[in-house]
Structures are given as C-alpha cells and as structure tokens.
Amino acid sequence: MNAVGIDVSKGKSMVAIMRPFGEIVSPPFEIKHTTSDINSLVELINSVEGESRIVMEHTGRYYEVLAHQLSKANLFVSAINPKLIKDFDNDSLRKVKSDKADAVKIARYTIDKWQNLKQYNVIDELRNQLKTMNRQFGFYMKHKTAMKNNLIGIIDQTYPSVNTYFDSPARSNGSQKWVDFASTYWHVDCVRKMSKNAFIDHYKNWCKRKKYNFSKSKAEEIYEKAKELVPVLPKDNITKLIIKQAVDQLNSVSTTIESLRTLMNETASKLPEYPVVMAMKGVGTSLGPQLMAEIGDVSRFTHKGAITAFAGVDPGVNESGSYEQKSVPTSKRGSSVLRKTLFQVMDVLIKTHPQDDPVYQFIDKKRAQGKPYYVYMTAGANKFLRIYYGRVKEYLSSLPES
C-alpha cells in the first residue's frame, strides 16, 4: 500500500511516497513535466513493492500532463478537488505551506481515503479538443462584451445611441448592422452635413454594398435624429482613428467567436450523444456543443445526483437534531462554466416557452408559485441535467459496442 502524493504546479511537481503509519518510502522530491522525469517517476513507483495509488489536485490544467502520462503507464491515478485536500486534517498547530508539505499531505490523504479514491479517466482527444474550444469560446465572449461596451462608450461621444438604431441579428460571420453603420457614419456630422436626399442615396448605396435591407423611412428617421444630437468629440482624423480601431477589434473577435462556434458544432457532431442532445428543447447548435464540452462522457457519473453535484446545482442539506432547514442554497461547488451554460438553456426555454417540454413546465410551475429567479432557474437546471443524464445514458447503452 503505497500512497503517492503529488503537488502539481506549472511545469514541475513535488512528489512524496508514503505507507501507513507515517512510513516514508521516498521523501518529497521535485520532477519536471518532461518525458525523462515522468518515465523516471513511473519506474520508481513500479519498483516499490505493493500496490501504489497516485493522488494529485485537480488544479486548472497543470495536472493533466502527469495524470495522462501516468494513466497511460497503467498506474492508478486519482485527481481530487483541491478543496478536499485543503479541508483534510493537518494534525498540526503550525501553519505550514510549502510544496513539500503539500505533497506529504496529499500522500496522507491518499492513505486515509484509499478505498474511496476514483480512478482518473483519460479524456479522449475529441472531447478534450471540444472542451478547450469551449473555454476559448467563453474567453472571447468576455472580450467581445468588453469591446462592445468600449465601442459604445466611444461612439456615444460622436454619435450618441447609434447602437440602438438597428435590431438586426448578428450575421454568420459575427458582424452587426449597427457596428457596420458606426464604422461608416462614425460621427453625427457624417450624416447631417449632407442634405436629406443626399444622405438617403448614400445610405441606400451603403445598404446595397453591405447587403442590408434598405428602408427609406428608416433613412429619414436616422437623418432627423442626427440633426438633434450633440457630439462631444470633434470630427477629425484622430477621433476617426479611435473609432475605427475599436470597430476593427470588435469585428475581429466576433469573427473568431463565430468560427469557433461553427467548429465546436462540427466537432460535437462526431460524438455519439450528439443527436440526443440536439433534440432536447432549449439546446441548439451553440449551447448543445457547450453542454457536451463541459459535461463530457456521462458514463463517468454513477447516478443522476453525481451529475447535478458536478454542476453545483444539487440542493443543499442542513439538518441537526429535530431541526431541518426547508430551503437550503445549492452547493455551487461544481463547474461554474456548466452552470452558466445551463442557465442559458433555461433562459431559452423561458423565451420560447415550449408547452410540451417537462423542464419548461417545471420552471413555469415554480414561477407561478412566486419562487425567486435563482430558485426556479437552478431547479430547472437540476431537472434538465437529470433528464439529460437519463436520455443520453439510455441512448449510449442502446448503441452497438464497437
């Protein structure tokens, strides 16, 4: 019984090997995340007599190199939530925080939780790529929001509220009509310095060139509004450059997002559960791949409660003696990215209100009862995940074994 505790960091890790009753097999030592060092570690673990189990913290993506390589070497590897390690008994009054101490603590945790350790499952390349793309997608979406707000803040000083002129949906390449309009008519004087007829003709040609629908009444409305607006920044080359740069940055990230969205859908379509997930209400070619990316292979969850706990939408419990709290907040200990995606799915259901969908019916019932927003959204996410788990697992079990 050999407990291998690994404190993982970027590019290197601290390793300690222990046996029960505090017997030190190998004092803490450092390894690099290189082929030679990992192979040396595998040889060392295999040379130690008895069964060995390796435990490391599930920290970001740093642990994946070791977990993947050690699993490929047919060693038992378990990746543990860092909070479980942190909350594990220190058995000391001293407050010690070092890589060596952490490696020993993880090894002690391994011995204590030996029977309950779950083996790390190597994510197949397709799912790993999909999850990586989804994280990149979220990263660029945050940047898009920031860049959009930045452009609005600048354009309000030259052409106030121009972002509210059009409600056309974004195109497949991510471009939006108001952004294209602001790129050409970047200052209110670009409109009102023309005559009304001249602007209408100019706007008509712009719509034709950009392949937007032209409306004469809309052009007249824009022109009349422009005459009343008060800009702050002057109409000169410096202001034009500032706005052009903001527009270019927004368009660039929008194009990246849409290409990622398309690629994610193409990648997700290669997964076996794709048709089942896409058939669920509230899920489309954008949210479907995001769900599959964050949930991963449902077969790794032993029951429905496990998948809701993974998402952090499982109801909490607070009981003591005869006391039992009726309404307990959810744990929120799981994947925040998955919770966000689930909330987006719930939002779609509320907006589309499919009457035959059990999740929407459940949410609608909670809303009718006067439940707060986060209560009915979280409850809906919980129910959706349970249905997702059941449908996907049933479908996968019906497929012929490859």
Verbal overview:
With about 400 residues, the protein is an alpha/beta fold. The protein folds into 3 domains: about 1-120, 2-Layer Sandwich (Nucleotidyltransferase, domain 5); about 130-265; about 270-400, no CATH class. The chain has 16 helices and 7 strands. It has helices spanning about 35-45, 65-70, 80-85, 100-110, 125-155, 175-185, 190, 195-210, 215-225, 235-270, 275-280, 285-295, 305-310, 335-350, 360-370, 375-400; strands at about 1-10, 10-20, 25-30, 50-55, 75-80, 320, 325. A 5-stranded mixed sheet has the order 3-2-1-4-5. It has a two-stranded antiparallel ribbon with strand order 6-7. Strand 6 (about 320) and strand 7 (about 325) form a beta hairpin. The protein is elongated, with a radius of gyration of 28 Å. The mean pLDDT is about 90.
Q: Which descriptors would you attach to this protein?
A:
54% helix; Nucleotidyltransferase, domain 5; DNA binding; 10% strand; alpha/beta; Transp_IS110-like_N; 402 residues; five-stranded mixed sheet; two-stranded antiparallel sheet; 3 domains; 7 strands; elongated; single chain
How many structurally independent domains? 3
Estimate the helix proportion, in percent: 40-55%
Average of pLDDT = 89
Unreliable residue stretches: none
Shape: elongated
Main beta-sheet strand count, sense and barrel state: 5 strands, mixed
Strand order of the largest sheet: 3-2-1-4-5
The topology string of helices and strands comes to: EEEHEHEHHHHHHHHHHHEEHHH
Ends apart, CA distance between termini: 36 Å
Measured by DSSP, the beta-strand proportion falls in 5-15%
Give the helix tally: 16
Overall radius of gyration: 28 Å
| Helix-strand makeup class | alpha/beta
Number of strands: 7
